[in-house]
Structures are given as C-alpha cells and as structure tokens.
C-alpha cells in the first residue's frame, strides 16, 4: 500500500507557519511596548524639550522656557533700572511691500509673533505680548545674541583684553593654533568673513549648524574641538558668508581674553550698567560653555534697552558703556563684500557690520536678527527701537518684508504728535 507523505509535510509547514506568525506577533507587541516605554521615558527626561524644540506644537512654549531645553548660566540684573516712559500710540494698519499695501495685523499673525515692543524717544508706545507670553517672559534671542557678543568684543578691546582686531584667533585660543580657524583674524569673524566652510542650512538635518548642537549636547564634544575640525573654503576677509561658527569662535576669544565666562562678562560690563529690569540667562553646552552664537534669554524690554543703548551711541544717560567709535564701526561696514544690495561677494542682500545687519535701501537703520523671526530694529533717524520675537517657520523668506513693516511702524509712531 502506497501512503503519500505530501499532506503530512503540508501540515508540518502550516503548523510552523502559525508558530512563526505567533512569534512575530509577540515580537511586534514587545517592540511596541518597548517603544512606548521609551517614548514615555523620553517625555519625562531632560532631553524631551530638545527633541521637540522646533515642533509646531512646542516651539512657542520652548522659546520662552529655554532653561528646560539647555543648561544655562544666570545673568543678574543690578543697579538702577533704565526706565521707559509710556506714550501709547496706535500701530499703522498697513505697510508697503513688493508693490502692495499689506495688513500689519495679518503679518504679525502670519509670522507667529510672540512679542512686539516699540520704543520712541525712550517711551514704550505699543507693547504686545502674544501667544501666552507676558512682560516677564524670558524670550530666547537665537542669533540676536551675536550682536551682544559684538558689543562685548568692543568693550574687551577698549579695556585692553584684546590687543587688536587683526590678531588671529589662535592668539587667544591656543588650542586652535595650526587650524584654519586659528589663522582667522578676529575682525573677519566679526563680519562673517572667516572663509571657513560651514553649512548653515537649518532645513537639512545633517547640516553643520544642526549637528553642532548634537555634537556638543548629545555627544559631549567641546566647542574648540568642533571648530578645530572645520576646513577653510576661501581666504579670510574676501566674502560675506553667514556662519554661526564664527561667533562661536568669538565667544572662545572673549572668555580667554577676559578670564570670565561670557555670561559673567555680560553681567558686569553691559547687563547691569545698561539698567536691565530682569535677570536673564545664557544657554550652555553640557560642559558649561555658553553658546555664543545664540541663546541669550531675556525680556522684550531688556532687548529694547540693548537696542536703545546702540540708538544712543553706546551711552546710557551720558555714561558710555559700549565705546562710541565701536558702535559706529559696527553698523557702518566699509569693505565692498559687506555692503547691502546685490553683491557678488556676499551670500545675502543685507549688508553686515560687526555682527549687525544693514538692510537694503539703507536709511541709517540696522538690526540684530535671529532665526525663527527674532529682531531688534534700531532707527536712529526716527529715534525708534522695535523688538519682535516670533516662532516663524518662514523666517528667512520674511526678513525683507519684516524690515518694510518695521520702517512703516517707525514712520508712523515718529510722525504722531
């Protein structure tokens, strides 16, 4: 009698398949549980704000609570406050841009404004705290901090801590000796003309600017080691290419030259003397080194005081805090590659001074600018300072329009009796 073994083999295969499916299903369940547990742990960990820093649902809250995202060094206010008067005035309803009249209120909403403060002749006109912020909220500066670093470099030069702006960076940071950054003159780093190759593309996950925070925060790399590994792309002082590593290098110079952490030097030379009303902080890496390229956290009014200081030529009520000649040099670039407008030797149409921006169609005004729509706009001709903080995902595209809106605001408040 012949007995076929095919049904038996098929049965064994079917049973084996069922066992494999059960094992796979249980494996997926276990992996899902582990993943959920991992997410739950991350949400309770100090890393969660950093992971969600720029997410649409979190960035407004994160930008006014940066102490939850990064470690920070405190900056105490001290001495009598440089007071603002009050002179309420309406904002203009519209402004002109790209040949059109545009609605200002709609622009403020579209650019996800978190705070707007306008000061005219030392008096607050509008003050608009938005999206849950209030006057005491410490809003992050992002790259507006670069203009603060510039002021501190000017003070350090005046005090003799820095001998010359033409000194190479390695003069003060010997660990960079023999590297491309070590050979860059301080002045060329101040004007974003170092010639160092650094990718500032925020939209690319693996760009140098995004990896900078991963390397210093998650991987524990020192800022000096990060800078030492960057190659040169062109000779210094020939092309204006905005790269945040230049200001990181300036922070190292400032700390080495003064013997103080950046936040401490700021507190003693600028924050206290200019009469701030609130404590601030400066975000640091895991080693406690300030991120000089960004991440000062302060109130709208204290940012306005910094703008007012530059409006007054570096002086507060007759007391010189930032050298007057430094202020003039900072906002009046002379080199051809730093001029505003279409410029083959620049990567942007705004001009650039010592870490201050000069907009197109120059009218004597200048700006500190940070990503995601942070601005201090200073208009000496109209005696106006405007501070705007935001969470604007289209920040680069909106910079020229923001200047148009600021100029309309300045004209309107200055024209009112």
From TrEMBL:
Membrane as a keyword? yes
Q: What Pfam families does the record point to? A: Beta-lactamase
The transmembrane residues are 20-42
Q: Per UniProt, which keywords does this protein have?
A: Membrane, Transmembrane, Transmembrane helix
Fetch the InterPro entries from UniProt: Beta-lactam-related, Beta-lactam/transpept-like, Diverse_Enzym_Activities
- Residue ranges of domain Beta-lactamase-related in the record: 118-395
Source domain of life: Bacteria
Supply the Gene3D superfamilies for this chain.
DD-peptidase/beta-lactamase superfamily
PANTHER family, from UniProt?
BETA-LACTAMASE-RELATED, BLL8153 PROTEIN
Name of this chain's protein: Beta-lactamase-related domain-containing protein
């Amino acid at each position: 009698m012949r007995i076929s073994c095919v049904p038996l083999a098929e049965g064994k295969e079917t049973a084996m398949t069922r066992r494999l499916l059960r094992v796979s299903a249980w494996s997926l369940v276990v992996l899902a549980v582990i993943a959920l547990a991992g997410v739950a742990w991350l949400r309770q960990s100090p890393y969660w704000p950093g992971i969600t820093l720029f997410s649409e649902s979190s960035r407004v809250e994160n930008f006014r609570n940066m102490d939850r995202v990064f470690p920070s060094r405190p900056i105490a206010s001290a001495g009598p406050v440089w007071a603002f008067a009050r002179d309420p005035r309406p904002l203009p309803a519209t402004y002109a841009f790209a040949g059109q009249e545009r609605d200002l209120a709609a622009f403020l909403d579209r650019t996800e404004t978190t705070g707007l403060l306008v000061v005219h002749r030392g008096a607050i006109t509008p003050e608009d705290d938005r999206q849950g912020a209030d006057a005491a909220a410490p809003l992050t500066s992002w790259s507006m901090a670069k203009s603060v670093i510039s002021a501190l470099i000017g003070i350090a030069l005046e005090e003799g801590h820095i001998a010359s702006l033409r000194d190479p960076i390695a003069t003060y940071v010997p660990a960079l000796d023999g590297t491309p950054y070590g050979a860059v003159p301080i002045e060329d780093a101040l004007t974003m003309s170092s010639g160092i190759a650094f990718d500032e593309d925020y939209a690319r996950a693996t760009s140098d600017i995004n990896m900078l925070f991963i390397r210093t925060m998650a991987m524990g790399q020192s800022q000096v080691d990060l800078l030492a590994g960057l190659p040169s792309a062109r000779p210094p002082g020939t092309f204006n290419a905005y790269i945040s590593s230049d200001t990181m290098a300036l922070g190292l110079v400032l700390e080495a030259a003064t013997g103080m952490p950046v936040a401490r030097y700021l507190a003693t030379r600028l924050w206290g003397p200019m009469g701030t009303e609130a404590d601030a902080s400066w975000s640091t890496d895991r080693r406690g080194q300030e991120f000089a390229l960004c991440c000062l956290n302060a109130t709208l009014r204290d940012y306005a005081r910094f703008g007012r200081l530059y409006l007054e030529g570096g002086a507060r009520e007759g007391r010189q805090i930032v050298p007057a000649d430094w202020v003039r040099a900072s906002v009046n670039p002379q080199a051809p590659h730093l001029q505003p407008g279409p410029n083959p030797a620049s990567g942007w149409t705004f001009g650039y001074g010592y870490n201050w921006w000069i907009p197109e169609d120059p009218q004597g005004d200048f700006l500190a600018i940070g990503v995601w729509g942070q601005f201090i706009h200073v208009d000496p001709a109209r005696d106006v300072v405007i501070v705007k903080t935001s969470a604007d995902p289209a920040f680069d595209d909106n910079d020229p329009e923001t200047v148009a809106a600021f100029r309309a605001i300045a004209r309107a408040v200055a024209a009112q009796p």
